[in-house]
Model the fold of this input.
Amino acid sequence: MPESESVSSSLTRLADLEDGVIASVNAEIDGEMESIILRRRGLSVQAWLNICPHAGRRLDYAPGRFLLSDGLLVCAAHGASFEMERGECIGGPCRGASLRAVAVRIDAEGGLHFGGARSQERI
Done:
């Protein structure tokens, strides 16, 4: 069963996210500000904590700036490579581990909101 944690609701608008591009936003999770990675795919959005499972460091090399190689998200600190469908590490020091997914939903007006829980399940 996935662990759930309280997450603030309002995030951004779907129209503000470029399709296929990795972006980040800051959001409050259980009273702490966290960096969240967002990936828009058409009318859906995937979200993960901006934390590498290898050493707990941020994945970006500068705030909101990510390394991408052959469609993989690459940790700037240790070179771990994550496929973007499930957030699974397929190369590097944390092979087989996954990014921690964050539940998101899109409302009728195109607003992006957190689903109210952070999940440890692979998506």
